[in-house]
Amino acid sequence: MASLTLCTQLWANEIQKGEYLARAADCVGCHTSNPSRPFAGGYRVPTPFGDVYSTNITPDPDTGIGRYSADEFVRAVQKGIRRDGADLYPAMPYDSFAAMSREDVLAVRAFLLAQPPISQPRPQNILPFPFNQRWILVLWKLANLRTGNFTPDPSRTAGWNRGAYLVEVLGHCGACHTPRNTTFGMDENRKLAGGTAGIWQAFNITGDKIAGVGGWSDDELFRFLKTGAVPGKAYAGGPMAETVMNSLQHLSDEDIHAIVAYLRDVPAQPGDERQPRFSWGNAPVTAGGAGAKTQGSGSIDGDTLYRSLCSGCHGMKGRGSPDGSYPSLIHNTALGAATPENVVMTILEGIKAGDVAGRKSMAAFSGWLDDGQVAALANYVTARFGNPDLSVTAADVRQMRAGSTTSQTIMVLTAQSLVVGGAVLMLGLLLLLARRLHRGMTSARLMFAHRDRR
Questions:
Q1: Per-residue confidence (pLDDT) for residue 327, from 0 to 100
Q2: 317 half-sphere exposure, CB direction, 13 A CA radius
């Protein structure tokens, strides 16, 4: 009986450990499309190449991981290989999870197997050719997947090493915050210098004082990671707000301090900003000023849209609410960025803040405003409260609403051209080789026939 009690307690401890690790990895964020069906998958992950839908990771035996053995689960997490041997798309950041320890992976598995099984098939991915062909993932892995467990640096403190493990491995921060290289893997030469999460811009979080977080204090970084809000600096939006809500707010203070310690040591990487994003804070402009109107549904007044839709929460002067539940638009990194994507996406999709630290969510206006109205409002708020150099057109909004940007479209077309060109080149080489072999065999037959006649 004592032995059974001990085993039960050990298994309970393993599940508890796995729950914390799953929080740190934000498994629920990407594997939940309906909050009432956690971990059942179906969440749409937008990529430059199309939409990938997350898998069901509940213990359901048919649509989930119920039939995965321990080794098969570890292989899926660390190497991106399904139980049936098919390669997983790197929308799942297994290029980061590759360095997870086997013990941590199995603890996450123990937690997931303790959840209620939910039968929910995964929707089909929406990917154009050739990205709908899984064989190309073999090439991607050859170029970008590095296996091997995380190795602590003995010259660093335990806190620094813990932060490195959380940032680089469990938290997979680089999946969004590191730009991509020519093979669409993480560019390790520009680690954490800013990337994308769908259309959203994931900002530079290196120590650069202008483009990154070099101008933030340790306390400000801690507060942002823990609550998603630092008045006078930034308010988390888009995927980052959801990460704070689902993951970061649940981490221990010790782990958040470890993340800050590690980020402080990441080499500074410059960006396109002329001044820190949080430093913008313009004096109010009159209605009809810069950015107030843009093409779309006739002549659209950004000031009128702001008064009717935004001022009730953010105030006429954009200073937000006194208790901080509604953020200030002045000294706000979203409006002071070098590109307009986050402002536009905030208007279209709103913000899911989850009432973390009392912060309220924001409604999505994609169903209320047309492309011209969104552009007018975006131009108005950036001109009045943020970076006045930003400008967006109705055509830009239309493209973002459809799930792409001009740079991403160019990237996809370039990738398609490279893959198709490579396939044509390979086919040409194979045909040339086959032709030469055919000629060689023909010559050999003629030579033997000539000898036979002699």
A1: 94
A2: 5
Per-residue DSSP letter, 191: T
Better-scored residue on pLDDT, 93 or 428? 93
Structure tokens at 271: 């960006």
Tens-digit pLDDT profile for residues 275-294: 999 999 865 554 444 444 44
pLDDT at 110 over 60: yes
Which residues, 6+ apart, have CB-to-CB distance to 361 below 8 Å? 350, 351, 352, 353, 354, 355
Which has the closest alpha carbon to 27: 81, 76, 68?
A: 76
Query: Does 1 share its domain with 140?
Result: yes
Q: Which of 146, 176, 206 is the last residue of a domain?
A: 146
Are 244 and 200 found together in one domain? yes
Q: Are strands 50-53 and 229-230 parallel, antiparallel or unpaired?
A: unpaired
**Positive or negative CA dihedral for 5, 6, 9, 11?**
negative
- The pLDDT tens digits for 425-441 are 656 666 667 666 656 55
C-alpha dihedral, 398 to 403 to 404 to 408, nearest 10°: 180
- Residues 170 and 265 occupy one common structural domain: yes
Can you give the CATH number for the domain in which 237 is found? 1.10.760
Tell me the average pLDDT across 409-415: 53
Cα–Cα dist 300/303, whole Å: 9
SS3 string, 78-96, reads HHCECCCCCECCCCCCHHH
Q: What is the pLDDT of residues 124-173, one digit of tens each?
A: 999 998 899 999 999 999 999 998 999 999 999 999 999 999 999 999 99
**Are residues 240 and 311 both part of a single domain?**
no
In SS3 terms, 350-376 reads as CECCCCHHHCCCECCCCCCCCHHHHHH
Report the C-alpha gap between 117 and 64 in whole angstroms: 8
Structure tokens at 156: 């660093």
Q: Tell me: the pLDDT tens digits for 298-307?
A: 457 899 999 9
Q: Same domain, yes or no, for 102 and 123?
A: yes
What is the structure's pLDDT at 291? 47
Domain span at residue 301? Answer: 280-402
Q: 169 with 236, same domain?
A: yes
End residue of a domain, out of 86, 118, 146: 146
Number of domains into which the chain is organized: 4
Lookup result for tokens 């055509």: 395
Decide if pLDDT at 385 tops 70: yes
The predicted pLDDT at position 236 comes to 96
Indicate whether 197 and 290 sit together in one domain.
no
